[in-house]
């Protein structure tokens, strides 16, 4: 038996986890965490059972006696955990086309049972904020220099590192406060490299962080990855004439975290750099959604086992 939430409904697939039979109907109240037997109700049909999800939503399961429904009650608790959407915070620095892809995928259910609770940008004129406004998603501008962590034009590497550490720590603290706390952070065109002062507190809190990078694992780490791959292609140095994109978990080594999904992209002789970039960006929009969906499912499954 499995369950998921789609557009305000909970869908239960399969038979009763208690008895395997479809006898009497038990209704699980999400708010009170209790089961009630409804023997007069008609048995649910096999397959999907769809019920409205609200403050006192009910999830139907089956059983014959209260003792037999022990497993069903446990299942109901798991469903309750899955009913709450996975909380996502997205970080972006520019146009936000990948952010838009995430918005659309959450809305249409390709990223299951999720909610983008906030966008964070580090550039004041990032168009991603307009996308957030259009989608009704709160956003915040938080910048290393504008918010006083680093002096403009600072050249001292020690002071720069100190400033970055303080900025990272402040941003981590911000994420870990109350309703702001996400279960998943997605870096979608975020042009800043986080250090341990940001990564360690989130890891300790069990928050997953994933990043989209336009290169294959171990290739072209950091900025300018597409341009560098294209230059190597033109010079005959690109292995198998292929570059690619990946979504990976974020660690304190730039673009070296464990890959979640990888897609190879062949370079073409008749393409210029701009055309290759356009083709890669189109694939990015697909891959970031697919990877986010995988991670969200893992989060929901883990939550249901707790």
Automatic annotation (TrEMBL):
GO cellular component, one term: cytoplasm
HAMAP family per UniProt: PurN
EC number(s) given by UniProt: 2.1.2.2
UniProt keyword annotations, A-Z: Purine biosynthesis, Transferase
Sample GO molecular function, one term: phosphoribosylglycinamide formyltransferase activity
Family matches, as NCBIfam families: PurN
Formyl transferase N-terminal domain segment(s): 87-291
Name of the protein in its database record: Phosphoribosylglycinamide formyltransferase
The species this protein was found in: Chaetomium thermophilum (strain DSM 1495 / CBS 144.50 / IMI 039719) (Thermochaetoides thermophila)
Family to which the UniProt record says this protein belongs: Belongs to the GART family.
Pathway the protein contributes to: Purine metabolism; IMP biosynthesis via de novo pathway; N(2)-formyl-N(1)-(5-phospho-D-ribosyl)glycinamide from N(1)-(5-phospho-D-ribosyl)glycinamide (10-formyl THF route): step 1/1
CDD domains tied to this protein: FMT_core_GART
Pfam families given in the database record: Formyl_trans_N
Keyword Manganese listed: no
InterPro entries xrefs: Formyl_transf_N (IPR002376), Formyl_transf_N_sf (IPR036477), GART (IPR004607), Kelch-typ_b-propeller (IPR015915)
Reactions listed under catalytic activity: N(1)-(5-phospho-beta-D-ribosyl)glycinamide + (6R)-10-formyltetrahydrofolate = N(2)-formyl-N(1)-(5-phospho-beta-D-ribosyl)glycinamide + (6S)-5,6,7,8-tetrahydrofolate + H(+)
Major enzyme class: transferase
